[in-house]
Amino acid sequence: MECVGGKMKIIKKGDIIQSARYFVNGLFEKGFIDGLVGTVLYNNNSYITFFTDKKFVDTFNPFFPSFQVSTAQEIKRITKTKKSERKFGVILRPCELNAFVELVKFKQIEKENILVIGIDCFGAYDNKRLKDIKEPFSKFIEDIKNDNEEDLRRTCSTCLNPVPNINADIVLGYLGLDGDGVILIPQSEAGNEIIKSFEGEDGKEEKREEVIKKIIERRRKKWEEVKERTIKEVHGIDNLLNFFKDCITCHNCKDLCPICFCKECFWESPVFEYKPENFFLWGEKKGGTKMPLDTIFFHVGRLTHMSHSCVGCGLCEDACPRDIELQRLFYAVGEKTREIFSYQPGRDYNEPPPLTTFKEEELRELG
Amino acid sequence: MNEKFEPKILGFFCNWCTSAAADLAGTSRIQYPANIRPIRVWCSGTVDPAYIIKGLLEGADAVVIGGCHPGDCHYINGNYKTRRRVKIIKTIFKTLGLGDERIFLKWISASEGVKFAKTMNDITEEIRKLGPNELGKKWNV
Question: Is the ipTM of this complex over 0.90?
Fold first, then answer.
């Protein structure tokens, strides 16, 4: 993993949750943070929570296998109007971290005074299945040990980012440790200083690297297969119509998308307040029109807006009330639009998003 | 292919270059096909990909975006941004098989009346060969 010349450290204060809580408690006690955005449990349900009271540490579980909204999108709400004067930490899954980086670039998050803690992520359980699992977290730990991906969200089972990109301050990891403690990996100078202040064993990379490699290799195969199938499945207007046949144009996919940040969204604008004449015009031209209107327009339009920044988190398809598997379409098409500019969302805070910049000498085939 | 097929081509032309070239073609009595439906915009950079998508979904047989040559944009760099947007939308249309060959980007300066007429002729002929846009008949898009 990427380090800034700092040392990795393994904290063993009981199991992985106890160790993670010990670490977070330490962050508060040593004064590194005054608040934290992370997952806490209440009646066995998980909630993303901003907390300043250390009592929440007792129910804190950053690795709980449930994924409802992108934490990156929620952080946006904290620093939307101005940067925070007080330091707070944020716990981000790898896909959330990538979305976080994109939102910083889009000037939706003010990163100053935020301590970014990325976590390893084997995945999260499918929301519908999660309800029927009695002890989700114990099962999750077992599943990690046994490489069992059966109950994961469809998206997670094809995810190629089980570990954070290089843009956190600290990575809080568990892969390769067999459920015994957590590993701290520095990714910034600030992170390195914090890790130094904790007691622990020196971390070793070999086992961790091996486990990560295995997960990625397995999933890459699966994703390549899904991608190929998806592109075939939607090729041509009739196939595309078929893919979206159940879409009710509710825009939930857009609302849950961490990348879609526009305050005034085109798809909610008065452009779509048609007049009776419009309908009769469609009647004259095409005989009639399907309703709700503009389904394909919405999805193709959204692809032009955000596919190059799509982090593949799959919240769009979780949000879909009609179970349309949007992520595989958006992420697969996104691969094509990213390829044009060799762009990778979440790679670098200083890499401008494709539509905010240009090069004079490029795309000459277009003119 | 079809003698009777007269394509409808939607043109978004920037005020300073391509629209002026259309005017020049007109005042110079250079003929260009009536298949083009020109819409004057301040800059090719103002052409939202949504205009292109909606145009094609509504049944335009092609969409042409006309702007100033690279380096000549009257808003400094609008046309470079247009080029990126057009590349993205063409890529998406190609991937989804929606007819990316019906989207054109052309740089035509204010002095290029002849080029304007020739370009519009060429595009019209190309689309005539390609045939009507099948999206135009889809009541359910």
Answer: yes
Per-domain residue ranges of chain A: 9-224, 236-366
Residues of A whose CB is below 8 A from B106: 367
Q: What is the distance in angstroms between the Cα of B26 and the nearest Cα belonging to chain A?
A: 24
Q: What does DSSP say about strands A88-92 and A45-51: parallel, antiparallel, or unpaired? A: unpaired
Side-chain half-sphere of A294: how many Cα atoms within 13 Å?
Answer: 19
Q: Can you give the pLDDT at residue A367?
A: 77
CA distance linking residue A10 with residue A121, whole number of Å: 17
Question: How far is residue A103's CA from residue A76's CA, in Å, rounded to a whole number?
Answer: 8
Report the topology of domain B9-134: Rossmann fold (3.40.50)
Residues of chain B in contact with residue A360, where contact means CB-CB under 8 angstroms, are 70-71, 80
Write the pLDDT tens digit of every residue in A273-329: 999 999 999 999 999 999 999 999 999 999 999 999 999 999 999 999 999 999 999
Contact B8/A at CB under 8 A: no
How close A232 gets to chain B, by Cα (Å)? Answer: 9
C-alpha–C-alpha distance, residues A102 and A80, integer Å? 14
Task: From chain B, pick out residues whose CB is under 8 angstroms from the CB of A340.
Answer: 87-88, 91
A20-65 pLDDT, tens digit per residue, is 999 999 999 999 999 999 999 999 899 999 999 999 999 999 999 9
